[in-house]
Amino acid sequence: MKISFVGTGYVGLVTGAIFADYGYKVHCIDVNEQRIKELNEGKIPFFEPGLEALVKKNVASKNLHFTTDYATAVPDSQAVFICVGTPPLSNGEVDLSQLTSAVEMTAKHLKGYTVIAIKSTVPIGVEVMLGEIIKKHVKQGATYEFASVPEFLSEGTALENTLHPDRLVFGVTSKKAADVLLGIHKHISGERIVTDLRSAQMIKYASNTFLAMKISYANAVANIAERAGANARDVLYGMGLDKRIGHAFFKYGVGFGGSCFPKDVQAFYDVALKNGYDFTLAKATYDTNLQQVTLFLDKIRAAVGGSVENKTIGILGLSFKPDTDDIREAPALRIMKQLVEEGAKLHAYDPVAIPKVQLVPFVHESSQIHFADDAYGVMKDADAMLLVTEWNEFKELDFKKIKQLMKKPVIVDGRSIFDAQALKEMGFSYAQFGNGSKS
Ligand code: UGA
User: Fold this and answer.
1) Among 214, 234, 218, which residue's Cα sits nearest to residue 436?
2) Model confidence band, residue 303 (pLDDT cutoffs 50, 70, 90)
3) 28 is annotated as an active-site residue
4) Given the residues 11, 260, 353, 372, the one annotated as active site
5) CA–CA separation, 426 and 409 (whole Å)
6) Is 24's pLDDT higher than 70?
7) 20 to 30 A from 240, CA-CA: which of 24, 110, 177, 392?
8) What are phi and psi of 194, to 5 degrees?
9) pTM of the model
């Protein structure tokens, strides 16, 4: 069976490699020639645990092909999965330019019957506009149907999420398309939901917005606990024991980032508004998230005596979450930008994200930001150390050594991963979110 993927980002590359591993002939298309060249050499454009080995194995077995040429991939494919980026525009709307160009190029090379399955996160109802594009370019004799197959993988655990998803959602317009998609996914476990296109598109937006809302709720609870003399860790743990609530996506701190939650919460809000509904819950989710960085900056200033000007600040963790080098919408970048503007000198470290951070314009242009080779490198002569992204390696730091290296033993923990009591006993000043408890 031959299938194609358009877009070699997290979704297209991971899913394509997994289907190739099941023995399908998979063609992954991307307009980026350099990326295709590197993928054919087994070089992965981003850090994702386990992916490089899987890609290399399936390139070697000739099940996985990378190309810039739609003509070699699309004809005879049972399904073409569109996995291109749908980033936000500066006005908060979704940039559909990659999607429209992928659909147009696909349309030109369709042969026989093909399911065009959109995996990118798209505004509800986008198939109407895409249908117009396709009609202009499709050749006589070729037939097609759109499907919506939203993706639920998370970066850092993408392989596991794709192999063992909680559910597979197929938004279709016919039984024929459903059968093609169910057949292609036969090796993958998880409950199948077959529905219409718009319901499938909405499952994605509504799920991401709900998860983001849960995080913002946890952050709000933490902020209240801190002020009301309670301990958010215990409050949220106590709440999560109720099976209807659960503990997942209930970690408070500097808030959510990444290429999905901030964008999707905004986009779902827009979809609601366009359809005549003022979705205030989505707006509050977004605003609460932004507020966490503001509150974190307040904690940093308070920890160093009021102003960060001329202070040396060490920062641990720059990616938007652990186990990825993705820095899109990373809270660390907003924190760094503000601290630089206020005159601080920054020493930053991340296990994998530094090369990407170095390319960010304000970082590149600043003489106030330096990068360390390891976690201890950021501590030297620091007036404060910030924990922003909770990589596992930061959970095993030697605090005796850290105390000797720092100018002042001050820690501001943005993810509450350190043992507050132990650090206080060692003479550290320790600030975090959510702990107003006196005991
Ligand atoms: C998210 C969803 O979890 C995936 O299901 C979805 O497929 C994906 O978006 C997407 O739309 O493509 P991802 O952005 O990779 O996945 O990362 P998450 O693990 O969901 O984390 C998002 C952000 O929330 C991170 O910044 C993380 O630090 C933060 N977070 C997460 C919290 O602050 N607290 C939590 O309890 C959980």
Assistant:
1) 234
2) very high
3) no
4) 260
5) 9
6) yes
7) 392
8) -105, 125
9) 0.95
